[in-house]
């Protein structure tokens, strides 16, 4: 955020999206993150496109490329969490949706990552800004690109 | 979450609900939890059906059965919080709504429970998954069954 | 919250607002708070009316009066956060919207204030109840009055 930051961000005059679209995306995220948190890594992977790119700058050396890589990663994650007896929740909110010229959606949201070990205390440990490109595939939204920025990891 | 967990959860192909219904349920929860947090135990109890069942496996030995029991419990709760000078907030989000064949709704949401003692620090102490059965009574939604699962209390 | 608290709060029978209005206000807040969190104090100030009043009883000796005062305050805030290398997030939810007779909206929401210093831990440090009066100016919502109550600061 340098002194050359414009005083008005790009797209701030974009119209709001209709209620049907907005609530579809809200429901998409509630179900998508529920699949991960409930331990369904395969169904979770199916919410990404075949060629999806999953970036998490401060956590992954390289982006995950493709649904198979996302599935493998989330299966391994599930085993780790079960071994450590951890309940994990991903909470998204403050959703902003911008339709793009190609029919895809840019969805920005805030996310909190939290975990509770069995018998332990709730630990809300990360605030993350999530930028998704959502595309419609056979009538259902899928994530084609996900880009996660962890607060505290340095300016983007 | 055993190895026999299916790779796809039941109901993952259910259509999303229309915006009017989704935002009605969002508003229902904002007002319902607001009644509890603002110290209106009687009005809170009236958001449950006469024969509502309120389960909280890790906190209650027995479910609360009926609106009268819910009212008594929340009146006692209010006195405790006032004596301890605690502001309490229940924050629900990540809402997923599934209409049932009998006209009721299954609503799942994530909930955070948090408290602040007068002059003290914010303490967000529990992540909970809330499963409600909502029924329409004279045009208004009421909770007929609430089942709360606290993270960290063991697999359901 | 004395013994004279009525058992039912004012307005609890108000109808829910239509989905289009509810999701417009959700989107308004996602973008508005995003402007502040992303470091656009001027665009943030433009989401308030020229004569807006910004109250924060437990943090401000005097309300901020007018868009210019809000802009100055948020510019100073941005400099402080940059100097301290802090990512700040304002998360609003549990939104309740009540249309008023004069065409304005009373919007109540819960808010969490959180910060992460570069390389540091997430600190969710305040739970706040936000009461806004929103007015429509040339087709866009603006905040005419904002009244913030921090939990733990004493009964209102």
Describe the structure.
The structure is a homotrimer of 156-residue chains. Chain A is of the alpha+beta class. Chain A has a single domain, classed as Roll (Nuclear Transport Factor 2, Chain: A). Helices cover 26% and strands 42% of the residues of chain A. The termini of chain A are close together. Chain A is globular and about 45 Å long. The longest helix of chain A is centred in the N-terminal third of the chain and has 19 residues. Chain A is built from 3 helices and 6 strands, in the order H-H-E-E-H-E-E-E-E. Chains A and C meet through helix 1, strand 3, strand 4 and strand 5 of A and helix 1, strand 3 and strand 4 of C.
Describe the secondary-structure layout:
The structure is a homotrimer of 156-residue chains.
Chain A: H1 19-37, H2 41-45, E1 48-56, E2 64-65, H3 67-83, E3 86-99, E4 105-117, E5 122-137, E6 140-150
Parallel strand pairs in A: 1-6
Antiparallel strand pairs in A: 1-2, 3-4, 4-5, 5-6
Largest sheet of chain A: 6 strands, mixed
Oligomerization: homotrimer
Greatest interface:
A-B, 38 and 32 residues
Please report the total strand number of chain A as a whole number.
6
- The CATH architecture of chain A would be Roll
> What is Rg of chain A?
16 Å
Shape of chain A: globular
Question: What is the highest CATH level, the class of chain A?
Answer: Alpha Beta
Domain count of chain A, please report it: 1
CATH topology of chain A: Nuclear Transport Factor 2, Chain: A
Mean pLDDT of chain A: 93
Question: How would you spell out the order of helices and strands of chain A?
Answer: HHEEHEEEE
Keywords (chains A, B, C): Plasmid
Domain SnoaL-like (chains A, B, C): 20-147
Pfam families (chains A, B, C): SnoaL_4
Protein name (chains A, B, C): SnoaL-like domain-containing protein
């Amino acid at each position: 955020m340098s002194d050359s930051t414009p005083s008005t961000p790009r797209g701030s005059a974009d119209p709001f999206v209709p209620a049907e679209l907005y609530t579809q995306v809200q429901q998409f995220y509630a179900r998508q993150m529920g699949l991960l948190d409930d331990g369904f890594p395969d169904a979770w992977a199916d919410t990404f496109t075949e060629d999806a790119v999953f970036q998490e700058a401060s956590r992954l050396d390289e982006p995950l490329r493709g649904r198979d890589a996302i599935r493998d990663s989330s299966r391994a994650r599930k085993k780790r969490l079960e071994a450590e007896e951890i309940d994990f929740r991903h909470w998204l909110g403050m959703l902003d949706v911008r339709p793009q010229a190609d029919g895809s959606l840019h969805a920005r949201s805030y996310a909190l990552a939290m975990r509770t070990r069995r018998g332990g205390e709730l630990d809300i440990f990360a605030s993350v800004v999530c930028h998704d490109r959502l595309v419609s595939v056979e009538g259902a939204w899928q994530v084609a690109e996900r880009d996660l920025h962890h607060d505290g990891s340095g300016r983007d």
